[in-house]
Every structure is written in structure tokens, then in C-alpha cells.
Specification:
With 300 residues, the chain is mainly beta. It contains 2 helices and 18 strands.
Length: 300
């Protein structure tokens, strides 16, 4: 931040702020939220749920999806507690319902982050923390998370670390959810796919980029995409907002698209992942080894 700007503020929080907050009522009572606002982007980090992102607003406009469950304390089966949010990280023990012995989309989101830290560094905010997936006589993995929030974007920088003394394995999927009013019938979805496949019987691959108005409940649509460059572009011309997602395809070779354009559940999920659901495969990780992942979203 330049010196002339600093001369004009009594407190830097006039232009860029970070607040460590607690929800005081309702089903989310007690939940810890790290709220970042820089006048353009508002980002709420869910410290009690894997340091995922509860919501994102760009120039005051909501771009994320919040399910009818809302922020909650993870009570009930998956369909009753799924919050949605801008980022719901799936793993490290399961994605979708692939492993019937583990929670749907894994146990990570239900785990509280530790060592949470948020600092203002000139004109950006850095939020970091650790999320552990452990079991007696079993897995001992740490997910170290570091986010950088700028005036027009968020970068996710994750490191999976095997803290155990034996080799292990994991899966990872970044469930990034877009909702109304950014998602609407004039929403444009674009990416350059080398190949695309329907992931369920009710899915027509030709409709993968077709966005409609909300309609009565039917079967959700799921697609697998292998992209040329790891770039997904989303636009809402009516709001004059564009979002560009980029992800490291070496670490995240697959893009899962979840389209659920139904009344009361109007959402599209753009989900870089390590594995398909029908060809479920975990990444091996040796004792002491670290695997890095990066995803970024930029708004304009």
C-alpha cells in the first residue's frame, strides 16, 4: 500500500481488514469465521471446517452457493449438513461415496483447523492453518493451507504432508461452488477440454456448458473433463462479472463438473480433483513426503 494512501487513513482497517469472529446464534452457533474485506472482495474463511471458504462476495455481489442447511455444526447425514460454501474441500480419506466405510466426500471438512493465522501484508491478506487427518494405528496426514487474498482474487496453496512413520495415501477434490446471483440463466461457462465424459446415466455431455433458469427437481448432472490448460472461465454479462479459475493439472489432472440447477438447490460446482469416482484411486505418499496443490480464482 503506497504512502499516500496510508496518510489518508486513521486505521488500515478502513481499506483492508481481517476479523476473527464467532457466530453467536442458530445452527452455526460457536462457529469461528475469519472475515477478510478489502473493499472489493469479501471472503469468509471457515476455521472450524478445514479452513474452507464459507462465502465470497465481489463488489458486494454474492458469487458462492450456500445450501439450505446454511453454516452449521455438522449434525446429521451428508445431505442434512452439507453447507456448500465457496470452497468445500473433499478428502483426504474419501471423495463422493467411493469408499462406503468413510463419510461422503470425506471427513476433512468436519475437522477444525489448527494454528490459524491471518495477517495483512501491504495490500493483501494471508490466511493460513493446518488440518489434520489422523487415526490410532492409522493415517497421520497434515494439510497445511495458505490463502492469499488480493483486491481481485484468491489463491489456494495447499501442502499434504505425511507426518507418519509409514507410507500412506489420500484423495483430494476442491468443491468450488457458484450460486445466485452470479450463477443465473445468462451465466457463461467456458473451458478448453481435450476430452469430456458423462459421469452418471442421466447426463448428456452436449449439455455440459448449458446453464438454464431454475427448474423442478430432477437428477443432478455430473461430468468429467480433461482440460488442455487448467483454465475455466465463468461470466455473468448482466452483472458484468467474470471469474477465471486456474489449477495445476500435474497435481489435479481432472475437472469434475457438478450441475444442479434446481429450485432451492441452484448451484454449479467446478471441482479440480485427483481422481474420478468411477476409477477411484488414491495418491500414495511416503513417510515424510510433501505434495503441493494450487488453485486460483480471479475476478474482474
Amino acid at each position: 500500500m503506497d504512502i499516500n494512501t496510508l496518510k489518508k487513513v486513521g486505521n488500515i482497517k478502513q481499506v483492508i481488514s481481517v476479523y476473527d469472529m464467532e457466530v453467536k446464534n442458530g445452527v452455526a452457533c460457536g462457529k469461528r469465521i475469519i472475515l477478510v474485506n478489502n473493499g472489493v472482495l469479501e471472503v469468509a474463511f471457515n476455521a472450524d471446517n478445514a479452513l474452507d471458504i464459507a462465502w465470497v462476495k465481489y463488489k458486494g455481489v454474492n458469487v458462492s452457493f450456500l445450501s439450505k442447511n446454511g453454516l452449521n455444526n455438522n449434525v446429521g447425514i451428508f445431505g442434512e449438513q452439507f453447507e456448500g460454501g465457496f470452497l468445500y474441500t473433499c478428502g483426504l480419506d474419501n471423495v463422493s461415496a467411493c469408499d462406503k466405510t468413510r463419510p461422503i466426500h470425506g471427513s476433512l471438512h468436519a475437522r477444525k483447523a489448527e494454528n490459524v493465522n491471518a495477517i495483512t501484508d501491504n495490500d493483501k491478506v494471508i490466511v493460513s492453518g493446518d488440518v489434520y487427518t489422523t487415526a490410532l494405528k492409522g493415517i497421520n496426514l497434515k494439510l497445511h493451507r495458505k490463502y492469499v487474498v488480493t483486491s481481485n482474487g484468491i489463491s489456494f496453496n495447499d501442502t499434504v504432508i505425511n507426518c507418519g512413520f509409514t507410507d500412506s495415501d489420500y484423495v483430494l477434490l476442491y468443491h468450488v461452488n457458484f450460486g445466485y446471483p452470479f450463477l443465473d440463466k445468462d451465466f457463461i461457462l467456458d473451458f478448453d477440454a481435450v476430452s469430456s465424459f458423462p459421469a452418471n446415466k442421466t447426463t448428456n455431455i452436449e449439455d455440459c456448458k448449458v446453464i438454464t433458469d431454475a427448474r423442478p427437481k430432477e437428477s443432478e448432472k455430473l461430468y468429467y473433463h480433461y482440460l488442455k490448460d487448467g483454465v475455466v472461465i465463468m461470466k455473468n454479462p448482466s452483472l458484468d462479472i467474470e471469474c477465471v479459475m486456474e489449477f495445476d493439472m500435474k497435481a489435479l489432472p481432472l475437472l469434475v463438473e457438478w450441475k444442479n440447477l434446481f429450485e432451492g438447490d441452484y448451484v454449479i460446482g467446478i471441482e479440480p480433483a485427483t481422481t474420478r469416482f468411477d476409477e477411484y484411486k488414491k495418491n500414495p505418499i511416503k513417510s515424510g513426503e510433501e505434495h503441493k496443490f494450487s488453485v486460483s480464482v480471479k475476478f474482474s
